[in-house]
Inverse folding.
């Protein structure tokens, strides 16, 4: 998994790292249990302040996306989140609400919006299947 | 719990060389411990003069300077014990070898991490027996960086450290600051880098001040700056309508096209532009270097 930072995106650096790792996990570019570079090597590789990477990893750990095993390294967590189900649902509802509001602003009608959600889930499923197949070769 | 003592606190600093106009006037700067602070400015803006005041090479004529809460003159040894300085022009005794130079510099320090020294000498592929007079500029900077990092100081002062160096050496410099220096005690390792080569330090910088003609023009947190500064490009079907562009500090026109740079207020301005049904409208954020250029070109 290679991270790419964009200093012209207006997005804080630590958030770019968090989002890219989450996306990699969702699309299968990173598999559960797979190793991630730890804080110092990633900071050196990206030439980013070490505390910025630490902040990103701290957030990813508290979200249950990654874990650090002392002496072993950093890994993508297997598919369980430490949060209780209701909390996870609540977090997702916040994201969904944002998308609903955006759809309204961008004048995307309801049926089209729902179809888009189906399509996007299918895309991620496909990516994950594709990377699993590659792993088997 | 009380707030931590800033690593650097500069208040209303004023300094003039001889009878000339003030090199620095009314300058303020605060650097919290554990942060990496960028001091940006064109040549002659006053950056090196500021650093000289931190090192007690110059005495403020007005205002004051505190490093770790201490006056660099009254507590010179205590202050210097806790910092290391990498200047633009690095000077060593030319007849000394790299090994002798490092041993000599280490003798002035209470603490010296020999393991780090060994790792960095290897990483930079330096020959310890080579006399410093025959080192390239990049190698001299590398030796200076080793000498600055091995005592594991609380504050690293970098004054144009990468100017004149090739891109590989510049990258290795940054990687070393992040790895060998920051990693040791991340909450406590503070960096002040004064430079006009902003691009490569972009990832490292938490906060910055742009200095122009001796005073601070902009002082911002890096993430906030990237969010606030926007370049808006808009094209109208017919010639650009009469618009109140006072919130933009940089406006470029070419026929039906407009390019605007704003510091905050981007979304409102975009809303107003949308009302004139433009043919095309796009926005992008600015890198720290672009922000620097835009602010430095601002009319007085």
């Amino acid at each position: 998994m290679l991270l790419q930072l964009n200093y012209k995106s207006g997005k804080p650096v630590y958030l770019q790292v968090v989002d890219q790792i989450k996306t990699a996990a969702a699309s299968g570019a990173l598999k559960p249990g797979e190793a991630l570079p730890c804080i110092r090597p990633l900071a050196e590789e990206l030439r980013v302040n070490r505390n910025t990477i630490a902040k990103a990893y701290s957030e990813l750990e508290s979200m249950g996306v990654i874990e650090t095993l002392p002496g072993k390294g950093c890994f993508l967590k297997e598919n369980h989140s430490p949060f209780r189900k209701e909390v996870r649902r609540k977090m997702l509802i916040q994201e969904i609400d944002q998308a609903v509001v955006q759809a309204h602003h961008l004048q995307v009608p309801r049926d089209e919006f729902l179809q888009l959600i189906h399509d996007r889930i299918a895309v991620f499923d496909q990516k994950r299947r594709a990377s699993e197949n590659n792993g088997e070769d | 719990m009380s707030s931590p003592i800033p690593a650097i606190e500069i208040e209303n600093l004023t300094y003039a060389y001889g009878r000339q106009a003030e090199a620095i006037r009314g300058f303020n700067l605060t650097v919290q411990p554990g942060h990496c602070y960028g001091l940006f400015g064109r040549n002659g803006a006053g950056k090196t003069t500021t650093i000289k005041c931190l090192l007690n090479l110059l005495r403020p004529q007005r205002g004051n300077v505190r490093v770790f809460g201490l006056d660099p003159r009254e507590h010179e040894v205590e202050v210097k014990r806790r910092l290391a300085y990498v200047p633009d022009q690095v000077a060593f005794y030319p007849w000394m070898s790299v090994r002798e130079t490092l041993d000599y510099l280490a003798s002035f320090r209470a603490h010296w991490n020999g393991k780090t020294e060994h790792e960095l000498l290897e990483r930079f592929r330096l020959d310890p027996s080579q006399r410093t007079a025959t080192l390239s500029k990049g190698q001299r900077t590398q030796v200076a960086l080793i000498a600055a990092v091995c005592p594991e100081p609380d504050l690293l002062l970098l004054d144009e450290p990468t100017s004149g160096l090739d891109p590989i050496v510049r990258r290795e410099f940054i990687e070393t600051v992040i790895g060998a220096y920051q990693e040791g005690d991340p909450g406590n390792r503070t960096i002040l880098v004064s430079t006009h080569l902003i691009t490569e330090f972009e990832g490292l910088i938490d906060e910055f001040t742009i200095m122009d003609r001796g005073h601070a023009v902009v002082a911002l947190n890096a993430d906030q700056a990237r969010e606030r500064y926007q370049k808006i490009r808009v094209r109208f079907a017919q010639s650009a309508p009469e618009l109140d562009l006072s919130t933009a500090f940089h406006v470029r026109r070419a026929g039906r096209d407009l390019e605007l740079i704003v510091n905050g207020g981007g979304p409102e301005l975009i809303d107003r532009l949308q009302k004139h049904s433009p043919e095309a409208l796009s926005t992008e954020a600015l890198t720290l270097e672009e922000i620097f250029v835009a602010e430095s070109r601002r009319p007085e």
Q: What stands out?
A: The mean pLDDT of chain B is 92. Chain B touches chain A at residues 34, 36, 171, 174-175, 178-179, 182-183, 186-187, 200, 202-206, 223, 226-227, 230, 284-288 (CB under 8 Å). The CA atoms of residues 43 and 184 of chain B lie 33 Å apart.
